[in-house]
Amino acid sequence: MEKGFFITFEGLDGCGKTTQAKLLYDYLLSKGFSVLLTREPGGTPFAESIRQLILEPSDEEPNPLTEMLLYAAARAQHVGRLIKPELAKGKIVLCERFVDSSIAYQGYGLARNLELIKKINEVATDNLEPDLTFFFDIAADNCLQRLIKRNLDTNTTLDRIEARGDEFRHKVRQGFLKLAEEEPRIVLVNTTGKEIEAIHQEVIMLLKKYIF
User: What CATH topology corresponds to 5-211?
Assistant: First the structure.
């Protein structure tokens, strides 16, 4: 592959995107592709330090603009230091979350200025957009159950964003659905009632239209 290909994975916390990203990463490696798997916020050591600041529960709630800029700062570091250089090498880059998450979570979930979010992220990404986005749709009510099970299995607690509640998750999901209607690059994958392997096979089938 002469030109890199940028794929993002979006959805509510608990939708299964992390599992699907890893499965696709392993599959593409097995087919001989050069692949990078990364995530947001984070992806580089400096951006991961910003991630910790964003997600750790705190007695001081960040100012809305502060939170917006922190995500954008982590993204600017990630794009400039990792994503763009790897795409330039011709790699397939798989990334858990990107600008769509900022729009859905901050814009729709928290009713913050959509145009401002988009403008800030245009700067942060240097106008980089995914070639393809998988949106893993799941009912908001099911996410909390999955998150609780995950945290019990891993002995962790909900982060600051995960703890915002079902009403917030409903708004975020509606934001993702609206984006999926507006953006041809976003492919909606309904995960309700499907096994992990079945979802993985659906992702492969959809991806074949683009890179195989």
Answer: Rossmann fold (3.40.50)
